[in-house]
Target: Pas fold
Amino acid sequence: MSKLYQIKKDVQQVAAAIASVLGVEVTITDDALYRVAGTGCYAGNMGNAPIKASLFVQVLQTGAGVIIDDPGENSVCLRCESRQYCTELAQVCCPIQSGEATIGVIALVAFTPEQKQALLARRHDLLDFLGRMADLLASKVVEQERMAELKGMKNQLETLLNTVQEGIIAMDTAGRIIDTNTAAAKMIGVAADKLIGTNIVRVFAGLTIEDLLERSRKSGTGEIPCWLQGRRLHCIMKFNTWSDAAEVKGIVATLQEMETVKKIVSRYGWEIDCRADEILGGSTAMENVKQAVSMAARTNTAVLIRGESGTGKELLARVLHCSSERRYKPFIAINCAAIPDTLLETELFGYEEGAFTGARRGGKPGKFELADGGTLFLDEIGDMPLPLQAKLLRVLQEKQIERIGGTQPVPVDVRIISATHKDIEAMIKAGQFRQDLYYRINVFPVVVPPLRQRREDLPVLISHFLEKYQTAYAKRLAGMDTGAYNLLLQYEWPGNVRELENIIEYLVSIETGSRISLPHVMDRIQRSGEAAPGDMMSIAAAERQLILAAMAKFGPALEGKEKAAAALGISKATLYRKLKEYARD
Ligand SMILES: Nc1ncnc2c1ncn2[C@@H]1O[C@H](COP(=O)(O)OP(=O)(O)OP(=O)(O)O)[C@@H](O)[C@H]1O
Model:
């Protein structure tokens, strides 16, 4: 489609205006010689086939205007196919130029002697006038091209905005919505065209204009509470301003639904690195624990995991979550002992804006809301203060929470896994733990025995952590001295698997020789014991057992003692001193 054809309405208007002012007929063709507009006898003959007038061809080729007073006879007309039917008496022809290109021809035609006289009398003025009309049409073409370009850019931008998952709302500085993408309209539940013109503070009831301006000045992010026809829109909003020179012209808000944020956290934060075979240990005790976890994963009931610190309670809780139907939803963990009592309530249940002095703008969701649809792991539940135990019980019964300072209950669907190393039954007797809460959280009990009661698991754990930390420290060791290995097997492990993992990491990191040696192990275990004085006996006992085993193997003779000291990696003097101590006991 030619450039002139795209503005054919304008072209026809110009043709009609010229004809009525000058009293002659007008015809306008495009650069392919198709008639785009015409008056009088030309009016009904538009765009069917290219016209064959050789005069128009010449104007298009030369880009210069022509006046002829003898159509049919003029030398230009000699090549014209319609020459013998030509009824025209005079013509003034002018090219229509757009930049360097000639995009059409505009012509005035006289069919009567009066028209011819009028035309020829003012021929040069008329050529000049036609030149201006041609310029007018050329500028219309440019305008049309710009409009098409702008429309293309607008479509591109709209597609872009509607492709992003975040909601986007543009507004003026008074909060009046100017534009919005489909994601925002969908989140709010109102059609985009209905939102345009509405003030944002009418959509988000908790927002004021002052608040909006302050947030946008600081490019702030926060939750905006919002109730839409009884539905709570839980989203995170970020505000930015846009300016023209130094003046702020408007504000853009981006919205993300909490549900989406939680899905991302859940997907990328956890789902990918959690597998049931991460629980190591083939002892009967551990096999029973693994079986219990896999059974609990098939249910939706509350699980209470009990065991000493470092036995792997959190690991079991994560594996349980990942093996359950909730695996694509969040797993949120909170350690009730690590957070001061006063903060624990807000951490669990969240708060609304203005709930207390210093409360964050827009409020904050609690762990219950973040875990919605997934699992909440309440570690060290035995440390939860009594008043909060009562509130937790109510939430578990009613399956809804109320943020601190909030007025509306928020429904939550959360599976609870709790863990403790405390003697909860004794705490119940002492009035420190609510019995009714205990029944609620202990529907499915799982007990993890301490490492010292399942020593069969030690070899697999030792070799796993050795492998893990050799890779981490980019080292390759030839293994471990027998004495060192035996000490690890005999030690009491009061800190359970966590302590074992820490010690092996330390041993791998400091070892400069090819094998992990007994003195390093003894030294490290000794220091571990110093941190927990109650466990000193177990280290001493392990050491005694080792030395006596070596003596039994190599015999009490001088040579045997020398061999035992060498195998244990200690000096003969130390061996004699130790043996003297044992003899005194
Ligand atoms: N059976 C196991 N197999 C492999 N790794 C384990 C095992 N048990 C524990 N671990 C590892 O030991 C470390 C401590 O485990 P975790 O934090 O789960 O213990 P916990 O009982 O929850 O401790 P706490 O009561 O102190 O919170 C983690 O690095 C965990 O991966």
User: Anything to note?
Assistant: The chain has four domains: 5-146, 164-257, 270-449, 456-584.
